[in-house]
Design goal:
disordered C terminus; single chain; mainly beta; 3-stranded antiparallel beta sheet; two-stranded antiparallel ribbon
Length: 89
C-alpha cells in the first residue's frame, strides 16, 4: 500500500472592470493588442488584498478608465492523503 500526500494550491486574482475602452486613431488601434497594468509586487499576504492599479499609458491613445481594482486572494493549501495501490511500469 502506498500513501501519497497531495498539496493543492488555489490562486485567484480578479480585475474590475474587466474591460476598458481605448480611444485612438484607426492606425493606432490596429497596433494595440493588449492593455497592461503598471508593475506591482505583493508577496507574503495572508488575507485578501485589493489595490487600485494604474494602466500603462499607450502613446497616442486614451484608456478609459485609467485604473482598475485588482483583488488578490491568498493561496489556500489543502493537504490530503490518497490511499490505494499504484503500479510503476
Amino acid at each position: 500500500m502506498l500513501f501519497l500526500r497531495v498539496t493543492i494550491i488555489w490562486r485567484t486574482c480578479s480585475l474590475s472592470p474587466k474591460n476598458v475602452v481605448v480611444y485612438a486613431s484607426k492606425e493606432s488601434l490596429d497596433k494595440i493588442y493588449e492593455v497592461s497594468t503598471e508593475y506591482l509586487n505583493i508577496v507574503n499576504f495572508d488575507d485578501t488584498v485589493t489595490h487600485t492599479v494604474k494602466l500603462k499609458a499607450i502613446h497616442g491613445a486614451k484608456i478609459v478608465p485609467s485604473t482598475v481594482q485588482m483583488t488578490l486572494y491568498p493561496d489556500i493549501l489543502t493537504e490530503s492523503f490518497l490511499e490505494g495501490t499504484y503500479h510503476c511500469y
